[in-house]
Amino acid sequence: MNLFTKKQHRFCCFLPHHLGFLARFAAFHLHPLFLQLSYFLILSLLGYLGLKFSKPRTSVRSNDFDLFYTSVSASTVSSMVAVEMEVFSNSQLILLTLLMFLGGEVFTSMLDLVLARYKFTNTVLNRVTTNPFSPKEKTPFHANQVELVLVSIPHLESENHTSTHSSNTKFSDTDRLKYNGLSYLTFVVFSYLIVVQFVGFSLVSLYITFIPSARQVLKNKGIKIVTFSLFTIVSTFASCGFVPTNENMMVFKKNSGLLLLILPHVLLGNTLYPACLRLVIMVLKKVSRREEFSYILENFKDIGYDHLLSALHCCYLVATVLGLNVVQIVMFCSVEWNSDIMKGLNVYQKLIASIFQVSNARHSGESVFDLSSISSAILVIFIVMMYLPPYTTYLPVREHENDVKRKEKSVVEYLVLSQLSYLVIFIIVICMTESKSLKEDPLNFSVLNITLEVIRQRLRERGVLNWI
């Protein structure tokens, strides 16, 4: 073995060992809040340095604070723009794509699974530190050895074989299933992340390549098709809302096919992610017949992955997401169908653009219409939708069977809205009925005035503001 090969071998042995040490140190000694803060801070700083020292498309360079703000916005998928997107060069757009990928909810949740596996390994290690052969001595097990033993234990069919293993290592079958379940789930999440975005990237690239109108837009702006496709799909899946064009998706509002290709990623990476993930695991269980997948589905709470929900909860989540979207589409089309923002679109294009707009309103942030031209009533609806958490359900989810109070609740009690919800509903209705006055007399009729009046009337009914 020559000197170069020896150094290469040492480096290959050195890197995994120290990466594993860093992962275990982060999992066991750092608070989750500090860990996440450090991750996003380091990611943002690296992104800022990359943007600063890379060459922009134009000769005018952005100031350091704007670049750092953009880096933070991309890594935290906040979609707050400080610099026009068309200022960035191709290399800078690729860097922003990487930041959005590494800062997306699905990717960071996968990192949580990796840390959870290390924590579980440490728990098992603490349980087997007492040597069964000598109660005064400790077993010379290390965390890496525990992982190898947990993975290598086969399915034990004979009772004698089981008792021998349990007496020597004290690893139960549940430990093996949970460890393997965490490993399998990590692989499934990563595969889901890569496959969904690769398929979306491929379809969008093909569409732009073969549709002249979409290809001409990118050609006029000097944006590469591959860069645009990858950037947009990653941004949409991560619910960031960045698009390489200054006008966001407004320049593509007539390209209904492109909107339909991007639209699924709004849901697959956000509101419908738990349902899709559970469906993927169910398919893998049926195809592979691995007991680990059965364990994941039946013991999703023990796994500790927040995005893994019960089958019933997933069904209610899908129904809620679709129901909210249908309500938004009906209200949006009823108010904006013949407005100025729809000019130049046929019926099919209007419908697809409306569906794309309302689906993005909750979290993704992409837009095919100028939000400043949308009526106030619809803006209020969008604000309410943005306020709702991604996994909100308006149907009864009874997962805690031991909770008597939850079991005694009726379906009606689950569906009753809060007083704040009723106030929002009435504000939206008033804004819709007074949409003409809102446009013609914005001084006396504004969303703020309507909101204040509705709340004041409500407080007056309760006797709080009788003196007004």
UniProtKB/TrEMBL annotation:
Highest taxon listed in the record's lineage: Eukaryota
Membrane-protein topology: Multi-pass membrane protein
GO biological process: metal ion transport
Keyword Transport: yes
Record-annotated membrane-spanning stretches: 33-51, 93-116, 184-210, 222-245, 257-281, 368-388, 414-433
Family as reported in the entry's similarity comment: Belongs to the TrkH potassium transport family. HKT (TC 2.A.38.3) subfamily.
Protein name: Sodium transporter HKT1
